[in-house]
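Supplementary Methods, section 5.1.

A reviewer requested that the exact input to the structure prediction be made available. We therefore reproduce it here, unchanged from the version used in the analyses.
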Amino acid sequence: MTPYIAPGAMLGVVGGGQLGRMFVHAAQRAGYAVTVLDPDAASPAGRVADAHLRADYLDPAALAELGRRCAAVTTEFENVPAAALEALATHAVVAPAAASVAVCQDRAREKAAFTACGIACAAHAVIETAADLDGIDDGLLPGILKTSRLGYDGKGQRRVADRVALAAAYEALGSVGCVLEQRLALASELSVIVARGADGQLVHLPVQANVHRDGILAVTRVPAAGIADTRRSQAVALAGKLADSLGYVGVLCVEFFVLDDGSLVANEMAPRPHNSGHHSIDSCDCSQFDLQVRTLVGAPLVEPRLRSPAVMLNLLGDLWLTGRGAALEPDWARVLALPGAALHLYGKREPRAGRKMGHLTVTAPTLDAAELVAAEASTILGLGDALPR
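The structure derived from this sequence is encoded cell-by-cell as follows.
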C-alpha cells in the first residue's frame, strides 16, 4: 500500500502534451505542485506546470532529478519508454508501473492480456517477420494490419483485403512487428475508464459511446445511448477484471467494439486518461484527471457521478486551416453563446491537419438536448450539420 501523499508535495508527469496539461491543472487544484519532463520547450503541460525539465525521457540525469524532486510520478501517454518509468521507480512512487505500461505499448502483449482474462478480442495473428505472412489464415482476411508498437489515432494501420495487399502493407509499415486483426462488422464503439488504487479499490466513469473518423475520435456521447444496461455493466466488469489482473494502479481506458449481435470485443487499452473521458471535466463531479491524481497520491477513490449528459466534439487542427493552408481562428464567440458549451483548448501554437487542438463539451439536462446544441456547434465550426453516429 502506498502511503497517502498530502497536498503540498511535488508530483511529476512524464510527457508534456494535453493529457499532462489537464493532469497539471487537476493536481494544482488539489494543492499539489507539478514538474513535467518533456524535451519540447513549448509543450502544453510544461507551460502550465510549476517546473519543466526539458530533456529526453531516457536522460539519466533528468530522470534522477525528477525522482529527487517528486514524491510520485505518472505518465502522460503510453509511448513513454517503460525503462524511464523503471528508473524513476527507484526514486519515487510511479503509477501506473512500468510493467503495466509495457503491456499497453505492444499490441501482441495487449491481445495476450485480454485473452488471459477471458476477454474476447478480434481474431488475430502476430507477424514478426515477412516469413510469417505465408502462414496467415485466410479467415483473417479482409483485415487490418497494425504495427505492434507506436501506433495511435489510426497511425501505423492499413486495411488489407487479400494476401497481396497484406504483403504490400507490411512493407509500407516498415516490415516491423505487426498484428493482423480480422475486420469485424461493428454496430458501435464504446469505452470504459476505470481508476484503481494501490489498495485494489476500483471506480469508473459512466460508459461512453464513441465515433471515430480516420482512426481519430470525433464524438463522444455520455451516457452511452443505444447500449443496453447489461452490456454497459459487462464492459465495466471486464475493464475492472483487466485492471485487477495487471495489478494496475492509475487510470486505465479500455475500448470495446459492439458487434451486430450485441456482443463485446475488446479493441485496445490505454494506461492513462483518454480522449473519450475529457467530457468528465464538465459532466462529472470527479473527472478522470482528478482520479489520476487520487490514484497517484493514495487518496480515497469515490465513484464519479454524472451531473449532466454530455456530447463532446474533438477539435482537430483542420478547423484552423483554409484551403490554402493558412491558419484562421474558428468563430469561438458564436460557439460559446450556445447553452452548456465548454471550450477547452490545449495551448498548441501550430494547428496541423489531424492534430488534437482541443475539445468542446456540451452539457444539458438530457442527451437529446446536448445533441441538438452540439450539432449547432458543429455547423458553426464547419464540421457538418449532423454529428456522426
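The two ends are 43 Å apart (CA to CA). These observations are discussed further in the main text.
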